[in-house]
């Protein structure tokens, strides 16, 4: 078990579980880290958890991850926000994806690419007003 200040190792271990589709082990490790060693998550942690929800189709977990992102102050992190948009889109929650897009203070080439591919993920639902507030 990693120590409190081993964020890199902890994230790497969670990402390894995710990479081999051990979703329960990934979330179990995260819960154990948060409960036992007072692990402090960072942006990479939230990107891993967002991908976990999207791949495992844990719709209920997506809101928990989003709430934790806000609680820990990462809601305006460009990479975390882009990951959350992708998570919601892959879960079919286009309204949540749209809300995040609208609230993004900054957008990168990656986030713009994601925004434009979203209608292909769910063709019956599309994002609107994605041209407003473009920052690259």
What does this structure look like?
The protein has 136 residues and is an all-alpha fold. It is 66% helix and 0% strand. The longest helix has 14 residues, at 23-36. The radius of gyration is 15 Å and the shape is globular. Residues 126-136 have low confidence and may be disordered.
Write a concise keyword list for the protein shown above:
7 helices; globular; single chain; 136 residues; disordered C terminus
Compose a concise summary of this entry:
By secondary structure, this protein is an all-alpha fold. The protein is built from seven helices and no strands. It is globular, with a radius of gyration of 15 Å.
- Shape, principal axes of CA atoms: globular
Low-confidence stretches: 126-136
Question: Total number of helical segments?
Answer: 7
Radius of gyration: 15 Å
Cα end-to-end separation: 39 Å
Query: Could you describe the largest sheet, including whether it forms a barrel?
Result: none
Say how many strands there are: 0
Percent of sequence in beta strands: under 5%
Binned, the helix content reads: 55-70%
Provide the structure class: mainly alpha
What is the typical, i.e. mean, pLDDT?
A: 83
How would you spell out the order of helices and strands? HHHHHHH
């Amino acid at each position: 078990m990693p120590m409190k200040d081993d964020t890199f190792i902890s994230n790497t271990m969670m990402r390894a579980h995710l990479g081999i589709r051990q979703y329960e082990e990934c979330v179990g490790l995260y819960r154990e880290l948060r409960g036992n060693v007072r692990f402090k998550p960072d942006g990479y942690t939230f990107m891993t958890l967002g991908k976990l929800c999207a791949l495992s189709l844990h719709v209920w977990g997506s809101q928990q991850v989003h709430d934790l992102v806000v609680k820990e102050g990462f809601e305006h992190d460009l990479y975390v926000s882009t990951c959350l948009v992708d998570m919601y889109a892959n879960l079919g929650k286009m309204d949540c994806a749209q809300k995040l897009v609208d609230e993004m203070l900054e957008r990168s080439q990656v986030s713009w690419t994601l925004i434009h591919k979203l209608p292909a993920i769910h063709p019956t639902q599309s994002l609107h007003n994605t041209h407003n507030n473009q920052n690259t």
